[in-house]
Each structure stands twice: as structure tokens, then as C-alpha cells.
From TrEMBL:
GO process terms (BP): cell adhesion; central nervous system development; glial cell differentiation; positive regulation of neuroblast proliferation; skeletal system development
Protein name per the record: Hyaluronan and proteoglycan link protein 3
A single GO molecular function term of this UniProt record: hyaluronic acid binding
Localization of this protein: Secreted, Extracellular space, Extracellular matrix
Taxonomic lineage: Eukaryota, Metazoa, Chordata, Craniata, Vertebrata
Source organism of the structure: Zosterops borbonicus
Homology family: Belongs to the HAPLN family.
GO cellular component, one term: perineuronal net
Alphabetically ordered keywords of this record: Disulfide bond, Extracellular matrix, Hyaluronic acid, Immunoglobulin domain, Repeat, Secreted, Signal
Ranges for domain Ig-like: 49-161
Primary location group: secreted
Record flagged with keyword Transferase: no
Domain called Link: residue spans: 168-263, 269-358
Family annotation (Pfam families): V-set, Xlink
Signal peptide: 1-18
């Protein structure tokens, strides 16, 4: 009675730790690529039937704290009947495509989730040939590509689906000024702002929505890039088309740049507090606490501006010691003609209001 679960567990573990060999598993069998133009489905023929695995071609969008289902279905052509014992393996591709991260493996109703996905991932099987993955309480770093792999005996087929988080990219410079962060420090400053280092997709999306920033910043894959809408001399020259300028991969310890951080929708709210005479940073932190909240981080202010349309033409302290304010509807005496989060930098003195964050 005890043996079966143990055996299953051992098999699941073996499945998980094995590196991914899509086309060679120690046996030879006839492998025929299908001739669809899109080249997405990879199929093998066995017993005269072929196994086909399909996910969604369109990216699946979600946000911080939500539950999401990554669809995956398989089928046999022709159908081999209802009872086949298959294994399902979900893994997450890394930004740099080096190693995959195990997410979950399943045989029948038994499954195991791994690492950060423990307790947050399970298989959704509403229909007979479904192998969809459910991730609960989605986190910023869940953004990326996932491989759904179905194994039936020697047959091993897969397809890849893209999970994208709705969010906002913002450039970050620490108080000490421009180009002070190596890769690891860039990771940390984004985390301190309630965000993570952006990936290329996210920066590209931000650029297509209008982000123009003439300082190079780290991305999650260890490359350094910057988004330019309006070509100009100090930003790659006037003859280069608008786009993402790239310095390529840089040395993660030695080279120093700014950071591009990514923050998603908020679980809570951001609000503004002030006193007639303004506040120091310390007083500002205290008044947020008195209101049952905490001083907002930069990523939370950007998220509130983008997703909750927070508009406030008064400068307020944030947790990192910077002073900023969010403008959705540009108007006189509230900064430039475009919407955005305005920054006064990191004032060493002065009295301001404060932006607080409270979880719902
Ligand atoms: C996500 O799913 C869990 C468990 O199924 C549930 O408790 C929670 O309320 C869901 N969260 C959202 C945001 O729907």
C-alpha cells in the first residue's frame, strides 16, 4: 500500500531532475516533423498514431496576486481510446534559455510542484485530454515562457506558452546618481521598490507605449539596454531608428548602469497625506504608520499611477527617500505636457507630503 506512492514519487522526481532532451531518449523511433508552416507542433508517429500537444499561441496575461491557467491539451491522431497513462511535466524557460526550472510533474492524480511553485501550482483537467497548469497567487517573477510536456511511453511531446504580467516598467537611479549599480545591486534596488528587474518583453512593451529614457539600464537577462522614441545625438545618434538600444550582455560585477524595474498591479491602494507645514522623511514614515499603512515604494507609486490612475499634483516622500508625484492629466504647474511620475530626486532637506501604501 505504501509502495505505490513511493514509486510514484520516485518517478516524479526522476522526471523532474532529468534534463530536457526533446528528440532523444535513448531509443530510436521514427521522428517526423510535421510540415505546418508555423512549425509549432512537433509530432511523432507511433503505433500508427501521433501525439500532439498544444498550448495557447497568444500570450496569457495575468497580474500580481491573481490566479492564472496556462492552457495545454493533447490528443492522439487517430484517437487511441480513453485509457492511457501519461505523464505531464511543466517547466519554466529562463530568460537566457540556459536551464529550465521544474514547475510541476504529474502522473494521474498525483503531482509534485517544485521550488517557488510548491503550494501554488496544480493541474487542471476539466476535459479528458487536458494538462493545463494553474498557478495561484501569481508573482512578478512568474512572467515568462512555460513548457507543457506530455509523455506517453516513449513519446514525448511539448509546446510552449508565454505568461505575461500586466505591469509597468520604470527606470531607477539610486540617490548617488547615474550608473552606480552592478547587476546584483540593480536586482536589489528593484526589489526594494516592490518590483523586479524588467525583462526584454516588458521593456519593449513599455517602449511601444511611449517610454523614452536615455540612460542605459540592466535587464533581468544581464543585458544593458535603453528605449528611445525620439532619436537624438546623445542617445545613439539621430540616424538610428527609434527602438531599444542595446549594449548587450555586460559584466555582472564590474560594469555599472541604472536599472529598469518592473512592477505589476497592486493588491492594495496608494494614498497621499500631508500636514500644513509638510513633513520630514521620518515624520512621513510615521504618519503612514499612524494611518495603518506604510510609506509607499517607487514601484507602488508607478503601479497606482498606471492601474489606479492616481493623480496628485503635490510632491510626496517615498520609502527610498525620493520625492515624486503622479500625473495622469497634465496641467499647468504640474510638470511636463505628458502624463507621468515626476521626480524631485532625493532631497537632503525640505518638508513634503507623503504617499502611503495600504494592502487591501
Ligand atoms: C485563487 O485561488 C485560491 C484557491 O483556489 C482562492 O482562495 C483565491 O481566492 C483565488 N484568488 C483570486 C484572486 O481569485
Amino acid at each position: 500500500m505504501l509502495l505505490l506512492p513511493l514509486l510514484l514519487k520516485a518517478t516524479l522526481l526522476r522526471l523532474a531532475s532529468g534534463s530536457y532532451h526533446p528528440f532523444y531518449n535513448g531509443f530510436y523511433y521514427n521522428h517526423i516533423m510535421n510540415d505546418n508552416d508555423d512549425g509549432q507542433d512537433k509530432v511523432d508517429y507511433f503505433n500508427g498514431a501521433r501525439l500532439v500537444v498544444e498550448t495557447s499561441r497568444d500570450p496569457v496575461y495575468s497580474y500580481n496576486g491573481a490566479n492564472v491557467t496556462l492552457p495545454c491539451h493533447y490528443r492522439y491522431e487517430p484517437d487511441l481510446g480513453p485509457k492511457r497513462k501519461i505523464r505531464i511535466k511543466w517547466s519554466k524557460l529562463r530568460d537566457d534559455f540556459t536551464k529550465e526550472q521544474d514547475v510541476l510533474v504529474a502522473i494521474g492524480k498525483t503531482y509534485m510542484a517544485f521550488g517557488d511553485f510548491k503550494g501554488r501550482a496544480h493541474i487542471h483537467q476539466a476535459s479528458r485530454h487536458e494538462a493545463s497548469l494553474v498557478i495561484t497567487d501569481v508573482r512578478l517573477k512568474d512572467d515568462g515562457k512555460y513548457r507543457c510536456e506530455v509523455i506517453d511511453g516513449l513519446e514525448d511531446e511539448n509546446d510552449v506558452v508565454d505568461l505575461r504580467l500586466k505591469g509597468i516598467v520604470f527606470p531607477y537611479q539610486p540617490p548617488r546618481g547615474q550608473y552606480r549599480l552592478n547587476f546584483h545591486e540593480a536586482e536589489h534596488v528593484c526589489q526594494d521598490q516592490g518590483a523586479i528587474l524588467a525583462n526584454f518583453n516588458q521593456l519593449f512593451q513599455a517602449w511601444s507605449e511611449g517610454l523614452d529614457w536615455c540612460n542605459a539600464g540592466w535587464l533581468a537577462d544581464g543585458t544593458v539596454q535603453y528605449p528611445i522614441r525620439l532619436p537624438r545625438k546623445p542617445c545613439g545618434g539621430v540616424h538610428l531608428a527609434p527602438g531599444i538600444r542595446s549594449y548587450g550582455p555586460r559584466h555582472r560585477h564590474l560594469h555599472r548602469f541604472d536599472a529598469f524595474c518592473f512592477s505589476s498591479a497592486l493588491k492594495g491602494e496608494v494614498f497621499y497625506l500631508d500636514r500644513p507645514a509638510g513633513m520630514t522623511l521620518e515624520e512621513a514614515k510615521q504618519s503612514c504608520q499612524d494611518a495603518g499603512a506604510e510609506i509607499a515604494r517607487v514601484g507602488q507609486l508607478y503601479s497606482a499611477w498606471k492601474f489606479l490612475r492616481l493623480d496628485r499634483c503635490s510632491a510626496g516622500w517615498l520609502a527610498d527617500g525620493s520625492v515624486r508625484y503622479p500625473i495622469v492629466t497634465p496641467r499647468a504647474n504640474c510638470g511636463p505636457a505628458e502624463p507621468g511620475v515626476r521626480s524631485f530626486g532625493f532631497p537632503s532637506k525640505g518638508r513634503f507630503g507623503v504617499f502611503c501604501y495600504r494592502e487591501r
